[in-house]
Amino acid sequence: MAHLRKRLQAIASTGLHFAGGEFDRERYRDVADIANAILAELGNVPIERIIGLVPDFSKGYATPKVDVRGAVIENGQILLVREKSDGRWTLPGGFAEIGRSPAENVEKEVREEAGLIVSAHSLYSVRHKRKHPYDQDVRDFYKLFFLCDRTGPAEPSAGIETSEARFFFPDGLPELSTGRVLAADIEAAFAFNGGEMTGTSFE
């Protein structure tokens, strides 16, 4: 049901952009208010928080956000960073910024969160977040997972939003930040890197 409420919000926001008169705009504002109230009730959070998280699409067409994650595998281990926000571990990454390609975005995220200079060489998975058991979010977005190779001599180090950066063996993973990454995403990285998965997984 959550995805239907998100679609309702997107329809209202896009409608505000294309509405031809004040009557139509008022109706779409009402629809947006209802969608926000439903999302707030669903997540048991104040409606003000929902309004702050949902982008204002009244000046453009409503589309999903894009999250990029970088997998660096060396000597049978994978690079993870520990998020300051929840104390759990994830592949380095975050929301893509305007003006950069997906590969440039993930390279930037790995550098900022783990202190490594890398080159993204393969897109191994594209996931629609709501279709998988991530911690859910009022926003709708796609998750892009890249394999990256280290290209500089630096060693892993914490960034502004991370407290640690380390390599882990797949059978010794720490507690994951499941709003950002699942064990299945890490397993897919090893499968692609080892040639067991030969094509990009997408939906």
Provide a descriptive summary of the structure in words.
The chain has 203 residues and is α+β, with helices and mostly antiparallel strands. It has five helices and seven strands, in the order αααββββαβββα. It has helices spanning 2-18, 22-43, 47-53, 102-114, 183-193; strands at 65-74, 77-83, 89-90, 93-95, 118-128, 141-150, 162-168. Strands 1, 2, 3, 4, 5, 6 and 7 form a seven-stranded mixed sheet that branches. The longest helix has 22 residues, at 22-43.
Number of strands: 7
Distance between the first and last residues' Cα:
19 Å
The shape, in one word, is elongated
Proportion of helical residues: 25-40%
CA radius of gyration is 19 Å
Structural class: alpha+beta
The low-confidence runs, each spanning 5 or more residues with pLDDT under 50, are: none
Mean pLDDT: 87
- DSSP summary: helix tally: 5
User: What string, H for helix and E for strand, traces the elements in order?
Assistant: HHHEEEEHEEEH
Determine the strand fraction and express it as a percent band: 15-25%
What does the main sheet amount to?
7 strands, mixed
Task: List descriptors.
203 residues; 7-stranded mixed β-sheet
Summarize the structure.
The protein is of the alpha+beta class and 203 residues long. The protein is 34% helix and 25% strand.
SSE layout and pairing:
Layout: H1 2-18, H2 22-43, H3 47-53, E1 65-74, E2 77-83, E3 89-90, E4 93-95, H4 102-114, E5 118-128, E6 141-150, E7 162-168, H5 183-193
Parallel strand pairs: 1-6
Antiparallel strand pairs: 1-2, 1-4, 2-3, 2-7, 5-6
Helix pairs in contact: 1-2, 2-3
